[in-house]
């Protein structure tokens, strides 16, 4: 289509490279802003956000003296749920059952503290993450299209080149 409109081979060849470059730029920009927001909110003071509030906790997976994974749980007394948050495993240690063990730790915590369900939200694009949650018993309950990550400006260019789907999962532990 570009060639039909412009009659230029050079422009037709350069356009995909330009578009991929814009996609890379805006993806990187959004992700770096998101990480900056995380590092200046809950991850800047893990004790305050996850250790002090009742019904919340934070775990670290250590292997051979190295931190290889983390996960947090944040209780919500209003609806008697606990949210699984910040699950992450070092890419060099994925596929070894660490994420599953961390997820089970949150489920155990929720049961010991009499929560009725565990919820989580993820923007993960890798199917392995979704399969992990389902293997732990979570049910997919919905998707929010064009989700805005913390730190996103939602500018027109940002929306054109970077879109996020936010998946919600729930595991009912007991009826209320």
From TrEMBL:
Domain of life: Eukaryota
Lipid bilayer topology: Single-pass membrane protein
Main location: cytoplasm
Compartments, record wording: Cytoplasm; Endoplasmic reticulum membrane; Microsome membrane; Mitochondrion membrane
Gene Ontology molecular function: L-aspartate N-acetyltransferase activity
SUPFAM superfamilies: Acyl-CoA N-acyltransferases (Nat)
KW Transferase (keyword) present: yes
Reaction catalyzed: L-aspartate + acetyl-CoA = N-acetyl-L-aspartate + CoA + H(+)
Annotated protein name in UniProt: N-acetylaspartate synthetase
Lineage of the species this protein comes from: Eukaryota, Metazoa, Chordata, Craniata, Vertebrata
